[in-house]
Amino acid sequence: MLFRSPGVCLTGRLEKKGETDSFKMELAKGQAIIARVHSRKLGTPLDSHLSIMSPAGKQVAFNDDASTSSKDSTLTYTATADGVHEIRLRDLLGRGGEDFAYALEVEAVEPGFTVTCDDDKVGVLPGGAAPWFVRVVRTGGFTGAVTVRAENLPPGMSADPCVLPPGQNDGLILLRAKAGAAPAASAVRLDRKSTRLNSSHTDISR
């Protein structure tokens, strides 16, 4: 079965021991997908193992459990070559039977990013400075630079923006307080922006 693009939900059953179900999907280089198996959450005994084979027949990604609390597989993959990829689903222990049913979702992952900081608060003495460490996680094939700015700072405080260029995930915002700044507190807002590295050059804000 060949699918020309992501955006599908399939249902099936591993009826025999050692059985592997496979589905083919055409992907372009740089195209990102996320595949999710629903089995245990549906009450079936299937302990899924999900893998993706490249057009050359090489395994390029796999996943057993989505997390320590879930036996269902979730796999995110960005294609490194144009062509037909194969998605394979099996039981981790090679079991099968009438009740080893599943649903498999395959969706496109849009380019984007998230930014987190190492703490939800920071203190700065008058005339001093303190770093606020930030980390960016890029998804969906996004590789662009990310600029993070601290806004809504208390009076007497300032901060230079943190620019994370392509390939860099960690950085810091240096918060500065003027000498003699009065004690104050504020709910600081992190403004995060970037530009996608493609022909549209669309600004992304999170």
In a few lines, what is going on in this structure?
The protein is mainly beta and 206 residues long.
Let me know the number of strands: 17
> How far is the first residue's CA from the last residue's CA?
37 Å
Report the C-alpha radius of gyration, rounded: 23 Å
Strand percentage lies at: over 45%
**Order of strands across the main sheet:** 1-3-8-5-6
What does this entry look like structurally?
This protein has no helices and 17 strands. The chain has strands at 2-3, 8-13, 20-27, 32-38, 48-53, 59-63, 74-78, 83-91, 101-108, 112-117, 129-139, 146-151, 157-159, 162-164, 170-177, 189-195, 203-205. A 5-stranded mixed sheet has the order 1-3-8-5-6, with no helix packed on it. Strands 2-9-4-7 form a 4-stranded antiparallel sheet, with no helix packed on it. The chain is elongated. The two termini are 37 Å apart.
List keywords for this structure.
five-stranded mixed beta sheet; 206 residues; mainly beta; four-stranded antiparallel beta sheet
Topology:
Blueprint: E1 2-3, E2 8-13, E3 20-27, E4 32-38, E5 48-53, E6 59-63, E7 74-78, E8 83-91, E9 101-108, E10 112-117, E11 129-139, E12 146-151, E13 157-159, E14 162-164, E15 170-177, E16 189-195, E17 203-205
Parallel strand pairs: 1-3
Antiparallel strand pairs: 2-9, 3-8, 4-7, 4-9, 5-6, 5-8, 10-11, 11-15, 12-14, 12-16, 13-15, 16-17
